[in-house]
Amino acid sequence: MEPISAGFTLVGLIIFVVTVVSIAQNPNHGAVGKFVWILVAFFLSLLGSILWLIFGRGRVTRARR
């Protein structure tokens, strides 16, 4: 494996892990919804992660100070 492709593989893996953690911690979806989003992120790779960021996270509430 070439060093450049290994770097892209590592970056893709990191993005996938961050996406799965984000999905698991999101309170806006139930277990089935989270499972479906993880499947989307897995099978669509980078596109699935982008879709999660755009459509899946739902409304993000900010903490009041």
UniProtKB/TrEMBL annotation:
One of its GO terms (cellular component) is plasma membrane. The chain crosses the membrane at residues 7-24, 36-55. It is found in: Cell membrane. It holds the Pfam family PLDc_N. It comes from the Bacteria. The keyword Zinc does not apply. Its main location: membrane. It is a multi-pass membrane protein. Coiled coil: none annotated. Residues 14-57 form the Cardiolipin synthase N-terminal domain. Keywords: Cell membrane, Membrane, Transmembrane, Transmembrane helix. This is Cardiolipin synthase N-terminal domain-containing protein. It comes from Subtercola vilae.
